[in-house]
Specification:
globular, alpha/beta, 6 strands, about 40% helix, four-stranded mixed beta sheet, 6 helices, about 140 residues, two-stranded antiparallel ribbon
Length: about 140
């Protein structure tokens, strides 16, 4: 759908691509980098968000899906499934997520790209483990 939208967008929308926010990660969005790269939209100035939260439920608020998986060599908490954002509007977007209790990392496109591929591997492994286990598998497992 994204590819079709970008191909058929009106000229006035194409002129404002720098103001768009593109979402990646999870079942809803998947990995959209190849589509953005084809159109020169995979770069530092374009705002991209890696989803690590649920869509708003009955409470009206999204839920943070990140899980603490231990401590790294520096003694810092290590998290999986975190949201991440890069690009021109990263500060404003991160502020809105944090205001709703959602962990979010901010960085340049190169860092975000690494986080995005880590998330793609995380999503794949979670589904693989879930498919071979007899018991239901949660994010925390």
């Amino acid at each position: 759908e994204l590819k079709d939208f970008l191909s058929s967008a009106a000229d006035e929308w194409k002129a404002k691509m720098g103001d768009f926010v593109f979402f990646s990660g999870g079942k809803q969005c998947g990995c959209i980098e190849p589509i953005l790269k084809e159109r020169g939209l995979a770069r530092d100035s374009i705002t991209q968000v890696l989803l690590g939260f649920s869509l708003p439920g009955p409470s009206g608020k999204p839920k943070d899906l990140s899980v603490k998986i231990g401590v790294d060599a520096s003694g810092e908490d290590k998290w999986a499934g975190e949201s991440a954002v890069c690009g021109e509007w990263q500060g404003g977007f991160a502020e809105r997520l944090e205001r709703n209790g959602i962990r979010v990392k901010k960085g340049f496109y190169r860092e975000w790209r690494r986080w995005m591929w880590e998330r793609a591997a995380y999503d794949a492994v979670l589904n693989l483990v879930g498919s071979v286990r007899d018991k239901p598998t949660t994010m925390k497992d």
